Amino acid sequence: MNWLVGLVAGIISGTFPGMHINNIAMFLEGGAIVVGVVAFVFFEHIRLVFLNVPSESDVVGVHSAHRMLLRGEGIKAVYLLSVGTVLSILLLSSLFPLIIKILPVVYTIAKPIIPLVIISISAYIILTDNVIPAALTYISAGMLGLATFLIHMNNPFLPLLTGLFGVGTMLHEIESKVHIPTQRKLKVGISKKGIFWGVASSFMLAIFPSLSPSQIAYLLPVRGESMLLAVGAVSGGDIVLSLASMWLWNKSRNGAITYLNNVSSRELTIAVLSAIVCFALVVWFGTKIAKLLSGKKLKWFYIVSIVLVSVLSFLYDGFVGVMVLYTAALIGYLSHTKCRKIN
């Protein structure tokens, strides 16, 4: 029963704009947390493709996904993202015994250069964009994040992440007035290159936890459909490597997984089984959503979502929570118009 609760929590938080499994995981226990995290990662592919609302893990794939949606290929985009995720989880889980032996050695070697690598990657992302707006967005988001943690909010992640990646995007979508064209099923080819680079690069998340999956995916030599496979693979790899980090050091870059008391082979098995189930569910659900939303405008759906997130932020942290939410939303909104949202 706990696992079913985790599955429902992951589906809801993954599908609806402005929600995140990190804000629900505190109410889950044991295996339900793992199921919730896996379900969230799969179902946020639907949110990315059909609602054009990414999270920090898949924002780099938003342009490829949105282009496919506007060509009537949204179902294919969801499938590509999901294939990348499930293959990454299955492959890395099979290598888990090797990973927990190698990871401490690699981390020890890399530790002295971690700050330099993070600064270099951040600088590269900014310098290859519209430099001044990108730098201002990067600095503003960092300062807001620091201020949010200094004022000791009850739930800082809800208004902060939801504002940056959810509300800001929804405001932009309301303004753009885009409608979803009729979606159709298409044959899908799987790029081994996209899978390889996604799985291989996901190791960087364990070594450099300050980097996001999207920042890693942005550096990969793949574009278009291969990019979606890679983004899905990085997101799936993040789950397995977060479990490995908890196993080795009792800490993880994935906020929800930190609520686990311990990690054993049981949690890894749950992740694998959940991935298989969620892959089947998200492909089926994505087809239904495509039919439901074809030809529709989503203005009122976005407005209701923004109101809901605003109420939740107020319930957790009062007016401070709402202020953080809309400050983050402003930064997120401006990033759409002035630079890439990955900053």
DSSP summary: helix tally: 14
Order of helices and strands, N to C? HHHHHHHHHHHHHH
Average of the residue pLDDT scores: 83
Fraction in helix: over 70%
Task: Provide the gyration radius in Å.
Answer: 19 Å
Q: Can you tell me about this structure?
A:
α1 (2-15) runs parallel beside α2, α2 runs parallel beside α13 and α3 runs antiparallel to α4. The chain is built from 14 helices and no strands. It is mainly alpha-helical and 343 residues long. The mean pLDDT is 83. It has one domain. The longest helix is centred in the C-terminal third of the chain and has 40 residues, at 299-338. It starts with a helix and ends in a 5-residue tail after the last helix. It has helices at residues 2-15, 31-50, 62-70, 74-94, 96-110, 114-127, 131-150, 157-176, 192-201, 203-207, 213-218, 224-249, 265-293, 299-338.
In summary, what is this structure?
This protein has 14 helices and no strands.
How do the helices and strands line up, and which of them pair or pack?
Elements lengths: L1 H14 L15 H20 L11 H9 L3 H21 L1 H15 L3 H14 L3 H20 L6 H20 L15 H10 L1 H5 L5 H6 L5 H26 L15 H29 L5 H40 L5
Helix pairs in contact: 1-2, 2-4, 2-12, 2-13, 3-4, 4-9, 4-12, 4-13, 5-12, 7-14, 8-14, 9-12
